Amino acid sequence: MTPRGLQLLYLPPFSIIARFFISALLFLNLFGLFLLYQYAKGELNLPASVHLWTLGFMGSTMLGALFQMLPVVAGATIENPLRKAFFVHTALSAGTLLLAFGLYMRTESLSLLGLLILLISLFYIVPLMLFKLLKLWGTLRDAPRGFVFALLSFLIGIILSVFLVLGHFGRLTVPYGKLLELHLSFMLFGWTATLVASVAFQVIEMFFVTPPYPKLISRYLPPFVFSLLLLKFLFPKSFITNAPIGASFFIFSLYTVYLLTKRRRKVSDPLVSLWYVGMFFLAVSCVLYPLKDELFLPFLVSFGAFVMSVIMSMMYRIIPFLVWMHLSTKGIPNAPAMFDVIHPKKIRLNFYLHLIFLASLSLLPFGIFLPSLLLLLADSLLWLFNIAGGILVYVKYERENPSHLK
Amino acid sequence: MSITQYLTEEHRKCDTYYAEAEKAVSQGEWEKAKELFNTFKEKTLLHFRKEEDVLFPEFEQRTGIVMGPTQVMRMEHDQARQLLERMEQALQNQNKDEFLSLGESLMILLQQHNMKEEQILYPMSDQNLDSESMVVKMSELGEV
């Protein structure tokens, strides 16, 4: 008999999640600055901008979170995680910068080099994570099973991106519109929304003490969406596939809101509110998804607001908890409590700023962009400052208590 | 009743006790909060005792796994005990921020701890031990 509890004790080194989260927020700030720069020049390069966000911000956060969650949630240990994380993190950051810069400058060599670096790192880590999870498939709970479908979608999305980049530079004749539709759907719903939902199956109940999700959602939503995405290879732009994908996550968002209203801990908490906000924008983007040919930017912006809100909620809970957990596990007397790592006043301030930023998005249809751009920067900068401050608390304790820490 | 059912139900009860204490603290009702927190602390420690004095030794003896999941659970119980002490101190000082902050750590610690127990340790215990007699022995220590 394997004492799987032993694996569950294993806490990946704090520096792994810290480096991915800090990079994610640096990319978010860079994305804001890049948009502002393009605004000043009166232009918008969508592929370059979107990939700074999706690969830099979302990708860093999600891969960092998976390094943390695989051993803790699924009992799937990644050997030598520091070395692997260093390689993946460095390659992801460098590849994203090169790809975005290459797409912006329309420089084929830079884009292809960026893509190549991304492919090497992602084709290394994604199949490895999949292999680790699939080995334990029989014992996996719903959340890590969802990770499998998210990672499979990510892999398909990456393969599609190769054809897209080659098509973009005229190296290959490809049905660009259909491939873009598939790439976008696999990356946004198959990878991102499925991973967020799978994480929610685990953390909503755990962080907010709610009833669990029904099996129909937690067990079957990820494979159902994945099957529909595969069906899109036959019917890329069909309502038959797009409507049920949108409907699935629409139901998920409504059910999440319902669970949060049933939470036993009734104290006011901006991190709960961020989930409400995130679920609102997910629901909006689900409605817009089948209509995205006409409403592409509103769809993208809604989806972005969903992801940003949910990631903000999770980062603000995970970083303070992990700082306490790591220091406490290593025997630091009176390890700093979560409020000492990032004070709720700072989180609340960021939450309000985030709400103002989201409200300012309603000006976009009227062609008023500057307030949103400036607010996005302020929101991202404060977020980066707060998370970096929390990580520095860990560093400070590490320096002050060297005998406790290896 | 299985060990899983019996102890999982205790986890849910403890969650409710904490939620009530937390609500009282956040509303600044200190006397009520002390009473509710004492109940939460007492019941949580009783639950730990049932596991440490009855379940874990039997599990270790039957399975031969001594340095496995039970050891992990004991360590996390100790972390929770330390937090409970600090929360009691915060309550004495009527320090809302401190209490809620420590409570946040405690809740996440306990939720992930409970998850491991409910999904790994308890089912393993049900497979390897006489569930009925274990539940009777644990019940003799008191009701959570």
What does it look like?
- The complex is a heterodimer of chains A (406) and B (144).
- The longest helix of chain A has 34 residues.
- In chain A, 79% of the residues lie in helices and 0% in strands.
- Chain A is built from 15 helices and no strands.
- Chain A has 406 residues and is mainly alpha-helical.
- Among the domains of chain A are: 122 residues; 120 residues.
- In chain A, helix 9 runs antiparallel to helix 10.
- Chain B is mainly alpha-helical and 144 residues long.
- Chain B has one domain: Four Helix Bundle (Hemerythrin (Met), subunit A).
- Chain B is 86% helix and 0% strand.
- Chain B contains 5 helices and no strands.
- In chain B, helix 1 packs antiparallel against helix 2, helix 2 packs antiparallel against helix 3 and helix 2 packs antiparallel against helix 5.
- The radius of gyration of chain B is 16 Å and the shape is elongated.
Count of DSSP-assigned helices of chain A: 15
What's the total helix number of chain B? 5
Q: Domains counted in the coordinates of chain B: how many? A: 1
Question: Structural class of chain B, please?
Answer: mainly alpha
Largest sheet of chain B: none
* Assembly level: heterodimer
Task: Note the gap between the termini of chain B.
Answer: 16 Å
Summary?
By secondary structure, chain A is mainly alpha-helical.
SSE inventory with pairings:
The complex is a heterodimer of chains A (406) and B (144).
Chain A: H1 4-9, H2 14-41, H3 46-74, H4 81-105, H5 108-135, H6 142-168, H7 176-208, H8 215-218, H9 221-231, H10 239-261, H11 270-288, H12 296-329, H13 338-341, H14 344-360, H15 370-400
Chain B: H1 3-26, H2 30-63, H3 69-92, H4 96-128, H5 131-139
Helix pairs in contact in B: 1-2, 1-4, 2-3, 2-5, 3-4
Give the tags.
heterodimer, A: 406 residues, mainly alpha, 15 helices, disordered N terminus, B: 144 residues, Four Helix Bundle (Hemerythrin (Met), subunit A), 5 helices, 86% helix, 0% strand, elongated
